[in-house]
TrEMBL record:
Alphabetical list of PANTHER family matching this protein: ISOCITRATE DEHYDROGENASE [NADP]
Alphabetical list of Pfam families matching this protein: Iso_dh (PF00180)
Residue span(s) of domain Isopropylmalate dehydrogenase-like: 20-416
Protein name as annotated: Isocitrate dehydrogenase [NADP]
Native species: Flexibacter flexilis DSM 6793
Gene3D superfamilies referenced in this protein's UniProt entry, alphabetically: Isopropylmalate Dehydrogenase
């Protein structure tokens, strides 16, 4: 075993001083963003550890660059590298709409079983926002990352496959509610108890470790009873079974309130006063208006794949847009993790050295925190905060700030380094 590999022993990451970290540059604006980000990462590590620590970057291919060079969108070598080196980082990869290859981003998450998509959402002082009090929005999304309709089990209208599936549903299950069966495409949404439990467990453990007040299970269980609804039920059951006294759930409240509403109110108030973690739930559509109107009531969010995708961009917009929305895809058991921005390839800006590299830079800060390199992460936060405070920012912030100086993507990276 090379001394430059990050490994995991008894659940604890072992990080050498000069770890090899595989990275994917990314499609579209990925090249611009990566060039700016990697300079920030190296500068933060150098400044934090005076040359005692240094990352050995290892480029691995995926997406358009990979296809052009190898004829393969996601080479086995790339998956092998992420498996071998445990921790990696990536830029965005393009997914065509309505046909063509399936998402390489989703494929990476599924192949490495990176079941938790962790996306922290917080406001940085001075960032322009469409809401009056963006500081009230301080949430961490745990999005299930391997199941749901992202499993890609869908069949196109008019194909023999869809005809077979339709016939099966009609003959075996007497399904007669498909409005236009002859022209319907069909998709299947797998949601498992195991998948739910490991995601909700991660969210609760995170909330307890970081002393957060609540975990909200966000679902559309009124309509999709056995997938989204089961996610809620399994989530509550897991919380009560595995975390016992450390949590109080709205399910416990509801059970008690059936016979004694006053006692239930008191139990909830006591649990809150005692600092227990409150595990609650919200139906997804209502949740999306609540995050605008009452964001302070939400903290850690546990949700399924599609809801998590929508919620990520919606919450990012509240705190200033997806230019500064970082994320991580993690398997907390194997230790495998790939860090990446919430945003996509923003193709219209490709090659213009224009977009905000903040999301990938903050994803790198999350990676350093995951590796235990907190000092390097803190320098990145410091550099970013000071750059925003001096109003020297990329186009996305500049167009919403008065008196700001417009910087290119690369210049914003340099600005962060200057302010570390
Ligand atoms: N994990 C991944 O790799 C992801 C990949 N994708 C893929 O990316 C492609 C493009 O998707 P699309 O729906 O256009 O979404 P994008 O997130 O790529 O872009 C949408 C808009 O968000 C803003 N934006 C995005 N990135 C930045 C940035 N770094 N700085 C500032 N603003 C930014 C821009 O807004 P404005 O126009 O207002 O300037 C942009 O037009 C698709 O193929 C999609 O599948 C999408 C999401 C995640
Ligand atoms: O894989 C893609 O192209 C889109 C993924 C996405 O939007 C996300 O993970 O937030
Ligand atoms: Mg998305």
């Amino acid at each position: 075993m090379s001394e430059n590999k990050i490994t995991i022993q008894n659940g604890v990451l072992q990080v050498p001083n000069t770890p090899v970290i595989p990275f994917i540059e990314g499609d579209g604006t990925g090249a611009d963003i990566w060039a700016a980000s990697v300079r920030v990462f190296d500068a933060a590590v150098e400044k934090a550890y005076n040359g005692k620590k240094k990352i050995q970057w290892k480029e691995v291919l995926a997406g358009e660059k990979s296809f052009n060079q190898t004829g393969n969108w996601l080479p086995t070598e790339t998956l092998d590298a992420f498996r071998e080196y445990l921790v990696g980082i990536k830029g965005p990869l393009t997914t065509p709409v309505g046909g063509g290859i399936r998402s390489l981003n989703v494929a990476l998450r599924q192949e490495l079983d990176l079941y938790a998509c962790l996306r922290p959402v917080r406001w940085f002082e001075g960032v322009p926002s469409p809401v009056k009090e963006p500081n009230l929005c301080d949430m961490v999304i745990f999005r299930e990352n391997t199941e749901d309709i992202y499993a890609g089990i869908e069949y196109m209208a008019g194909t023999p496959e869809v005809a077979k599936l339709l016939a099966f549903l009609q003959n075996e299950f007497k399904v007669n509610k498909i409005r236009f069966p002859e022209s319907s495409s069909l998709g299947i949404k797998p949601v498992s108890k195991e998948g739910t439990e490991r995601l909700v467990r991660s969210a609760i453990e995170y909330a307890l470790t970081h002393k957060k007040p609540s975990v909200t299970i966000v679902h559309k269980g009124n309509i999709m009873k056995f997938t989204e609804g089961a996610f809620k039920t399994w989530g509550y059951e897991l919380a009560e079974r595995e975390f016992g006294d450390k949590v109080y759930t709205w399910n416990q409240y509801d059970q008690l309130a059936k016979t004694d509403k006053a006692a239930a109110d008191k139990a909830l108030a006591d649990a809150t006063k005692e600092g227990k973690l409150i595990v609650k739930d919200s139906i997804a559509d209502a949740f999306l208006q609540q995050i605008l109107l009452r964001p302070a009531e939400y903290s850690v969010i546990a949700t399924l794949n599609l809801n998590g995708d929508y919620i990520s961009d919606a919450l990012a917009a509240i705190v200033g847009g997806i230019g500064i929305a970082p994320g991580a895809n993690i398997n907390y058991v194997s230790g495998h993790a790939i860090f990446e921005a919430t945003h996509g390839t923003a193709p219209k800006y490709a090659g213009l050295d224009k977009v905000n590299p903040g999301s990938v830079i903050l994803s790198g800060a999350m990676m350093f925190e995951y590796m235990g390199w907190q000092e390097a992460a803190d320098l990145i936060y410091k550099g970013l905060e000071a750059s925003i405070a001096s109003k020297r920012v990329t186009y996305d912030f500049e167009r919403l700030m008065s008196g700001a100086t417009l910087l290119k993507c690369s210049e914003f990276g340099s600005e962060i380094i200057k302010n570390m």
